[in-house]
Amino acid sequence: MASGGLTRINLGAVLRPGTDRTVSWLYAITLLLVGFGLIMVLSSSSITSYLQHEGFFGRFWRQTTFALIGIPLMLIAAAMPISFWKRWAWALLGLGIALQLLVFTPLGINNYGNRNWIQIGSFSGQPSEMLKLALVVWIGTVLLQKEPLLGQMRHEVIPIIPGTVVALGVVLAGRDLGTVMIMAALVLGAMYFGGVSWKTLGVTVLGGVLAVAFFVLSSENRMRRLLSHAGGTDDYSGIDWQATHGLWALAGGGLFGVGLGNSKAKWSWLPAADNDYIFAIIGEELGLIGTVLVIALFVVLAALMLRVIARARDRFGRAVVGGIMVWIVGQALVNIGVVIKVLPVLGVPLPLVSSGGTALISCLLAMGVVISIARDGAKHQEELEQDPGRTPTQR
User: Fold this and answer.
1) Do 140 and 89 meet the contact criterion of CB atoms below 8 Å apart?
2) Contact present, 226 and 260 (Cβ < 8 Å)
3) Cβ–Cβ < 8 Å for 9, 72
4) What string of DSSP letters covers 249-267?
5) pTM above the 0.85 mark?
6) 75 burial via Cβ count (<10 Å: 0-12, 13-18, 19+)
7) Which residues of 202-230 are buried (b: 16+ CB within 10 A; e: fewer)?
8) In whole angstroms, how far apart are CA 283 and each of 46, 270, 333?
9) What percent of the chain has pLDDT over 70?
């Protein structure tokens, strides 16, 4: 609802007992993943945190703080009517790009060869995580606005592809190809579920593949990683150190794991144990059962999002939820694929589970948007049941 130009929200309505079951399950799976992630961040980061003079609980408390910030933001996002996201989509994209450009100012810092972070005092953040959400909301809004013209390739391409190139370009300028690939997949997901024609999708995919090939071939470090992965080498003292030790950690867990907190790999053997390779620690401490449980939670999350897409009121909802599903669930599959050495090392965290403040907050905000669309979809279904002849409306 909008009154006097201001959006009014009702947080109580979001959590009342009569809420649609899909919404309740979305909340449950999201909070379960976050809670499980906090436990695993505590276990996997304790040694590294202590060695960096933060105490055994330093990283855990920091991640908990971000969770305590992100969860209320998710509730606020979930309470927003979808008209809010449509109204502010262009402004959100502009803000996301502006924040990303800060990495090229004195606030920007390098991390593992990538310049994709900003540092303000003791706070460090990754603006590209927020840009993901802004980009998918913007694409959904554009597709809804151009709905009568869809099917004509030039209208399906413009302005989505130029806007995407700008957004991905400012991230790629910082040499973070892993994040760019996730963002590209997000864009394709939004376009596919938003109803863009196969012809346009095919041309977009071809262009994306050629661009990835160019940037991989033009980087010696990326080529080394790719050739090392493809050749199956075991240079565990060099470029394959992280991938090999991650696989060893998984293998060491067996069926039931060595027990929560008993990982050996986290004792400075496995870099990014609480971040990109937290799945390896899950496998080591909780075994195959623990890893299958995590995968199952993401599968259920994907199924719930597909249900939201099927019940969405309009093209905006389908595109946005489709893009967020590809982002969160797809990134989880990529992260797991890297840990089990199906994919080369890309440097992307496990959504909602890995440590990382901006990543956690952006994912929680994204889930809030999904829940907002799910609530609207449930209301739409009720309207259709009361009046079967009613046509979908655009809000």
Assistant:
1) yes
2) no
3) no
4) HHHHHTTT-S-TT--STTT
5) yes
6) middle
7) eebeeebeebeeeeeeeeeebeebeebbe
8) 17, 13, 15
9) 88
